[in-house]
Amino acid sequence: MTATFPRTEWIWRDGEFIHWDDARIHVMSHVVHYGSSIFEGIRTYKTDQGPAVLRLQDHLKRFQNSARIYRMDLGFDLEKLEEACLELIRRNELDSCYLRPLSFRGVGAAGVDPRASPVHTYLICWPWGAYLGAEALEQGVEVCVSSWSRPAPNTNPTLAKAGGHYVNGQLMKMEAGVNGYSEAIALSPSGLVSEGSGQNLFLVRNGCLITPRVDGSMLSGITRDCIMTLARDEGITVLEEMVPREALYTVDELFFSGTAAEVTPIRSVDRIPVGEGKPGPVTKLLQSAILDVAHGRRPDRHGWLTHVHPRPAGGEVEEAADEVSVARGAS
């Protein structure tokens, strides 16, 4: 099973713009053998004021923190990365897209110790719709509890978003797929609910919003933070607590959250219907709330949006920075 990837014209690499086909790495790059990469997933949404990036600074700060944890020198500060992200979207002329900052270890070390391998930083963006399909956002998905568990605390640094961490999620996602489910829910080493294969998880019981507390087995998601903030804005009680597996079968509502997944309702777990077996009112309320903020249909009270084409006094669209160089041809 293969898929055709949606190409764009430009990619940013180590401070310069290159063409899509020139973004190549060597087979002996450390990342190919040992998974030594960090990344982010960021969404840009279409608004009446042009494309706007949701929580750009927060994502880039986490990207920087992931680099610190893995002792990687990005070579660029947050301000430079932010402007490069915005310029990349402008150059590719996208109204909405998925944005992927990525850093990895290149050719150098042959063994596990990566320090002799140079760090390369890329920014990529491409059009990407609903992660599990538009129907999933509207009707919800059927999921299973995976036979694969999340790693124990102090095994992988789960507050870092690192490529190597996601082989665990791949096993969950593949197992779910071959068994006829759209997604999987992972348990922690203690047997408590952790997260999805690449998403955080929320439960609704008696009008309260519940999410597993950060315990060293899961990524503390930025969309997760958005959902908790918006729920409190709506007067909903939000609890972070330990969640036993059996709670998944008895809650009123259940949904995934994430940059790719956005807010995806879950209609059944292990073939047991969640609530009435369809998206519930709290799920739909919070799904609408975050998408309305992202698309500029609701006031951005928390300052989450960064507009790709900011409007200075006089209404002129800010010109793209000319100091960014363009590299043509393979390096």
Explained architecture:
The structure is a single chain. The chain is α+β, with helices and mostly antiparallel strands and 331 residues long. The chain folds into two domains: 119 residues, 2-Layer Sandwich (D-amino Acid Aminotransferase, Chain A, domain 1); 161 residues, D-amino Acid Aminotransferase, Chain A, domain 2 (Alpha-Beta Barrel), CATH 3.20.10. The protein is built from seven helices and 18 strands. The C terminus is likely disordered.
Topology:
Elements: E1 10-13, E2 16-19, H1 30-34, E3 37-39, E4 42-45, E5 52-54, H2 56-69, H3 78-92, E6 97-105, E7 119-126, H4 134-139, E8 141-145, H5 166-178, E9 183-187, E10 193-196, E11 200-205, E12 208-212, H6 222-233, E13 238-241, E14 253-258, E15 262-269, E16 272-273, H7 281-294, E17 305-307, E18 325-326
Parallel strand pairs: 2-18, 8-9, 8-15, 12-13
Antiparallel strand pairs: 1-2, 1-7, 3-6, 4-5, 4-6, 5-17, 6-7, 9-10, 11-12, 11-14, 14-15, 15-16
Can you name the CATH architecture of the largest domain?
Answer: Alpha-Beta Barrel
Question: What is the fold named in CATH at topology level of the largest domain?
Answer: D-amino Acid Aminotransferase, Chain A, domain 2
Task: Give the low-confidence spans.
Answer: 315-331
Record field, number of beta strands: 18
Helix share bin = 10-25%
Mean pLDDT: 93
State the helix count: 7
The rounded Rg comes to 20 Å
The domain tally reads: 2
Give the name of the CATH superfamily of the largest domain: D-amino Acid Aminotransferase, subunit A, domain 2
Overall, the morphology is: globular
Q: Give the CATH level 1 class of the largest domain.
A: Alpha Beta
